[in-house]
Amino acid sequence: MTAQEVEVDPVGAGQPDPVISVRDVWKVFGPKASEVPKSPELCALSRRELMDRTGCTAAVRDVGFDVAPGEVFVVMGLSGSGKSTLVRCLTRLVEPTSGQVLFEGEDILAADEKRLRDLRRNKFSMVFQHFGLLPHRRVLDNISYGLEIRGVGKAERAKRAMEVVDLVGLSGYEKSYPDQLSGGMQQRVGLARALAGDPDVLLFDEPFSALDPLIRRDMQNEVVRLHREVGKTMLFITHDLSEALKLGDRILIMRDGKVVQVGTGDELVGAPVDDYVRDFVRDVPRANVLTLKWIMRDPRPDDVLDGPELGPDVVVRDATRAVLAAAAPVKVVRDGELLGIVGDEEILAVVAGQEADA
Ligand SMILES: Nc1ncnc2c1ncn2[C@@H]1O[C@H](COP(=O)(O)OP(=O)(O)OP(=O)(O)O)[C@@H](O)[C@H]1O
C-alpha cells in the first residue's frame, strides 16, 4: 500500500458489539406499502418513479448501519431525505415496513407493546427540535416528568433533576417556567429531561435547527461537553454538515431515503464516494478535518528522515506548525512503523485548499 492509498476501516470493524444495529430497513408510506421491499423491480425504481407507479413514498430505503457504545453517530441529509422517519423507526414511533432493528442484540421489531414502552422509557430518550416542554410546570418539574411517569418517588426525582440541572448549565433556573426562558435555555431543559432518566441512548432529531446561530453553536459545544462527561451513545439527526462534522464520530449521509456513505468526517472529506458527497463537503475547511494519513506521501530517496514524528490521526491544522517549523519532513508513524512523510508542500497544499484538485 502506498501512502496515498489510505486504508479505510469497514464500518464497525474491530468495534465492540453495537448498541444499535440496523439492517435492510425500509419504510414505505402508501397503498400496499409492504409489497415494495419484496419486489426487486419496485426496489430498483427511484423514489419519484415509485410514487408515479404505485402511489407510495419510500421514505427509508434499505438502510443499514451499526452504532457502537459511546459513539456519536450522525445521520445527515437534506430535507425529505428520510432522517426523521429513520430515527423514528428505531423506537417504532414509526413502524418499519421491513428490515431488522436490534438494540443491544434485542429484536426491537419483535417487542410487544409493554416491552416497547419499557424500552422507550428506560433505554432511549429523544430530544426534538420543538422542545415539547410542559408550560405550566417549572424547569425542575419538566426535567423530572419522565421519572414521575416511571413512578420514581418525589425525593429521588428532585435529587436526580438537580444533578442534571447542573450538568446542562441550568443552575439558578430551576423554578422558572418554560416561557421565561430563551430558546437555547429551553433546549437545555429538553436535554436535561432526556438525561434525567439515564437512558442508554440519546436520540436527537434536529434539536438545534430552530435556534439562532450563536446559541446553536453554544448548544453544539454543550453536546460535545456532555458527551465527554457522560459518554452516552448518541444518534443525532441534522441537515447541517458543519454540525455533523463537529459532533459526529461517524456520519451517515442520506439521500432520497438511501444511505450514500457512512464514515468519519475525514473519510467523507478525504474519500467522498460520489459527486453528491463531494459537492456536500466541497466547502469544508479541509485542514480542520483531514488528518495526516490523508496527505502523507511515500519517502523519496533524497528525503532526510530525521524529522519529528506524529501519528496518522493528527489533524492537519494541529500539525501545521510542527511541520513548517521542522528542518526535515515530519514522519507519520504508528506503533513504530513509518507510514509516510509530510513536508511543507503537503501541508501548504491543504491549507491553501489545493490538494484535492492537484
Ligand atoms: N406519514 C407520512 N406519510 C407519507 N409520507 C411521509 C410521511 N412521513 C414522511 N413522509 C415522506 O417521507 C419522506 C422523508 O421524510 P422525513 O420527514 O423522514 O425526511 P427528513 O429528512 O427528516 O426531512 P425534514 O428534515 O424536512 O423533516 C418525505 O418525502 C416525506 O414527505
TrEMBL record:
Which example biological process does GO assign this protein? response to osmotic stress
Q: Which family does it belong to?
A: Belongs to the ABC transporter superfamily.
Transmembrane region(s) = none
Recorded hits in SUPFAM superfamilies, A to Z, give: P-loop containing nucleoside triphosphate hydrolases
Superkingdom, taxonomy of origin: Bacteria
Against CDD domains, the record matches this protein to:
ABC_Pro_Gly_Betaine
Question: Can you quote a single GO CC term?
Answer: membrane
Q: Does the keyword ATP-binding apply?
A: yes
Q: Which SMART domains match?
A: AAA (SM00382)
Q: Read off the NCBIfam families from this record.
A: proV
Pfam families attached here?
A: ABC_tran
Domain (ABC transporter) ranges: 45-281
**Which InterPro entries does this chain map to?**
AAA+_ATPase, ABC_osmolyte_uptake_ATP-bind, ABC_transporter-like_ATP-bd, ABC_transporter-like_CS, Gly-betaine_transp_ATP-bd, P-loop_NTPase
Q: Which UniProt keywords apply?
A: ATP-binding, CBS domain, Nucleotide-binding, Transport
Species of provenance: Umezawaea endophytica
GO molecular function annotation: ATP binding; ATP hydrolysis activity
Tagged with keyword Nucleotide-binding: yes
Q: What is the name listed in the Swiss-Prot or TrEMBL entry for this protein?
A: Glycine betaine/L-proline ABC transporter ATP-binding protein
